[in-house]
Amino acid sequence: MWDPAQYSRFRDERKRPFFDLLARVDVESPTQVADLGCGTGDLTRLLARRWPSAQVYGVDASSEMVEAARRGPALASPRFEVADLADWRAPALLDVLVSNAALHWLPDHEALLGRLVAKLAPGGVLAFQVPANFEAPSHRRVDEVRALPRFASVLKPVRRRPVEALPVYASWLFGLGLTVEAWETTYLHVLPGEDAVLAWLLGTTLRPVLAALGPEASRDFVETLRPLLRESYPAQPYGTPFPFTRRFVVARRVT
């Protein structure tokens, strides 16, 4: 389902939240570190360079993404694995568990957080970031096209990926015995190129939609969506402004 090249088209914009998340992870010398939803592995390698004495794992459900990660530089190379993010079994308790823009693909976040916290060593940190842009014009336009009769029945099983409000995440994590820091940031990306917002969505949100539709219907879907996105996000001489909100949580296991 995933296309590493398409996903990486806006590499710099997708990296920014990772750095903002990692800046709040105050761990000096972890021995076991994992990146759930590692994608092409670029950011996982940054974890390995930050903590060179740690064993770093990069885990992704996409074999295409993991293959791309394994083709990266051998220097400071983490151990990359293909696995379901919800069920991955860490070889040892983790000092740092990071997930950047991946957990929204998984259901039942209350149960999921319980499983993730169980992977942490005492004092271990869970740090994750999820998109919170699901009510933005981009997603409303996608929903508008999804609802058209020629697409609706096929796409009914393809669920949207909403996330919880920050107080909900905090309540669950406090209940699991963690301290919690949580915040929300809206980035204003200025995207280059023609139909830039469509290109962004083709790297993420639209992947399961197009996979369900098949080649011919996918082309129809994209061409129907294209003018709607142009209307919602008019291109400017300097690029296309694209506001994008994300939610961040950094939680430390006390015992």
From TrEMBL:
Cleavable signal peptide: none
GO molecular function, one term: trans-aconitate 2-methyltransferase activity
A Pfam family recorded for this sequence: Methyltransf_25
GO biological process: methylation
Database matches in Gene3D superfamilies: S-adenosyl-L-methionine-dependent methyltransferases, Vaccinia Virus protein VP39
Keywords for the protein's UniProt record, in alphabetical order: Methyltransferase, Transferase
SUPFAM superfamilies: S-adenosyl-L-methionine-dependent methyltransferases (SSF53335)
Methyltransferase keyword on record: yes
The UniProt record lists the keyword ATP-binding: no
Residue ranges occupied by any Methyltransferase domain in the UniProt entry: 33-124
Protein's name according to its UniProt entry: Trans-aconitate 2-methyltransferase
Gene source species: Corallococcus macrosporus DSM 14697
Source species taxonomy: Bacteria, Pseudomonadati, Myxococcota, Myxococcia, Myxococcales
